[in-house]
Amino acid sequence: MFSIIQILPEKFIPNFLMNWLEKYLDKRINQLKEESIKMTWKNMYLQDAANEISKKQQS
């Protein structure tokens, strides 16, 4: 559906569809940002755990 809308000139896309797409894309972008933040925190936690294991193995 997005590929079809992308090739259409903007004047042929109804306003309600443009508004819906804007809301959908905003929501999806926010979801991806939240997921990225969660993955960053998880990565930091795993990095700390790996560092702790490495320190214990060295001592």
What does this structure look like?
There is one protein chain. By secondary structure, the protein is mainly α. It is built from two helices and no strands. The longest helix is centred in the middle third of the chain and has 44 residues, at 15-58. It is rod-shaped, with a radius of gyration of 22 Å.
Q: What key phrases describe this protein's structure?
A:
single chain; 59 residues; mainly alpha; 2 helices; 0% strand; rod-shaped
At a glance:
By secondary structure, the chain is mostly helical. It is 85% helix and 0% strand.
By DSSP (H or I, 4+ residues per run), the number of helices equals 2
Indicate the proportion of strand residues: under 5%
Amino-to-carboxy terminus distance:
58 Å
Shape field = rod-shaped
Low-confidence stretches: none
The share of residues in helices is over 70%
SSE order: HH
The value of Rg in angstroms is: 22 Å
Give the SSE layout.
Layout: H1 2-7, H2 15-58
